[in-house]
Amino acid sequence: MRHDEAEESVEIVNRFRPLFEPTSVAVVGASSRGGGRGNVLIRRIRQFGYTGLIYPIHPTAHEIDGLTAYPSLAATPSPIDYAYIAIPGREVIPLLAKADGRVRFAQVVSSGFAESEGGVALEADLVKAARDGGMRLIGPNCVGIFSPRGGITWTEIGPQPAGSVGVLTQSGGLGVDIVRRGANRGLAFSSLVTLGNCADLGLSDFLEYYIADEQTRVIGLYVESARDGRRLFELLRAARSRKPVVILKGGRTPEGKIAAASHTGALAGGDRAWQALSQQTGCILVKSLDELIDTLLAFQMLTPNITRPTKRVVLFGNGGGTSVLATDYLSDHGLKVVPFAEDTRRALGAIELPPGSSIANPVDIPGGNFRRDGGVAASRILDAIYRLEEPDALIMHLNMTTFKGYAQSGTLETLVQAVLRVKAAYPGQSHFIMVLRSDGDAELDEQKRQFRVRASASGIPIYDELTNAGGALAAVSRLEHFVQSRSACA
Predict the structure, then answer these.
(1) Is the pLDDT confidence value at 408 over 50?
(2) pTM of the full predicted structure?
(3) Is residue 297 located within the same domain as residue 370?
(4) Hey, what's the torsion of the CAs at 148, 153, 156, 162, to 10 degrees?
(5) Most buried one in 214, 221, 336, 378, CB count within 10 A?
């Protein structure tokens, strides 16, 4: 990065710091009776660990939730970094206009603006009021921000360590899903912003911030419309894929465009335009919420290999049919499961695996054989594969149901230890992914949750099915090939 680019990045991050790390928060929409949406926010940010100043704003109340209340945004003892506003839409406009330059960022969660019939003019008045009041506006028609480093959340979730995944979403409901499902599956967020109608600050403004923010290394977007599409394209092209950007586009079909227009009050761009954006900038397009989370997880855990893009994959686990289906799936996505060389087969044969084992790639070890030696052979198998084959990626898949009732033997624990040991012995050589398959049994799901936490701490993404893992790995491969091709042309 050039010196002038570095200086510009620092300026952008400093500009948005009061939003993501606010020292003071004003809450409009809390009541003395405790039933308002603002009361919920106050309770949640306290539980989440926010330690800054909280100013409830109410025209008549003197105290709300044990905090001194103030009649207006201009009446607080100190300026406000972030104002959360949840009152009827028409009441918001005079509130903002009279802020007297004391608010930096206001997030209007209220609806009834451009997404509603007759609300376009009201939204224009809202933007003017924000400008008159001296602030930048997020929303309206959104739900809040999620910033672990700042102790801010609108959704009920326990304290979370700040991570490296930054997300922008034009849907508040999907924002809840991304935060909660993502956290359960191993995502650690730098922040997440629900954008709503993007009446003032929009997608490109926050994308520019995430590109500049050192803490954010992976960027996810849920987009229904991009009013400043040219700026979005220029930002992505200028970023040169330094950070993976994964986009879930809503409104790709004619019917979806109609739904998007009624949701955020803006028209969605055509699918071909987004495909062209992906081809020219290297951003990754996905088609479902689960695919978005899966792909963000892969980029969070795996460092793209630009010098040797992923192509050759080894499958190792228990389940022959599962391996066959996975081989087909990977092949459909441009990844190859190639039979091992003779030297590797001899080395695996020397381990003297029991009958029923396959050592050709895929490597299949029946669950009963895993149980027989407590999983010790897995370490020797992995070591031989890494040493002799040097694959681009290795996916280890375990059908946890076959271990049901054998938990006391420590088989699963031994297998996980083998994975961690071999990964540490060959750092950076191959992408390593684990798939832990279960049938919904509560005991197995709890074991999976515990393993997911430990594996995530070691940089190993855990997936529920081989298709999830394969799709995410294919996305990593696409980015690797894109960056390599651009480097060759430079």
Answers:
(1) no
(2) 0.93
(3) no
(4) -10
(5) 378
Name the residue with tokens 């939003």. 19
Residue where a domain stops, chosen among 81, 107, 138: 138
Here the contacts of 279-283 (C-beta below 8 Å, separation 24 or greater) are: 280/233, 280/237, 281/233, 281/236, 281/237, 281/239, 281/241, 281/245, 282/236, 282/241, 282/245, 282/479, 282/482, 282/483, 282/486, 283/236, 283/241, 283/245, 283/246, 283/247
Helix intervals (H) in 105-253? 120-133, 172-184, 203-212, 229-239
3-state secondary structure of 106: strand
209 lies in the same domain as 283? yes
Q: How many domains are contained in the chain?
A: 3
Check if the beta carbon of residue 327 is closer than 8 Å to that of residue 376: no
pLDDT in tens, 319-359: 889 999 999 999 999 999 999 999 999 999 998 787 778 99
87 vs 207: CA distance, rounded Å: 28
Task: Region of 53 please: left (phi>0), alpha (psi -120 to 50) or beta.
Answer: beta
CATH number of the domain enclosing 467: 3.40.50.261
Q: For residues 122 and 265, state if they share a domain.
A: no
Tokens of 331: 């092949």
pLDDT at 424 over 80: yes
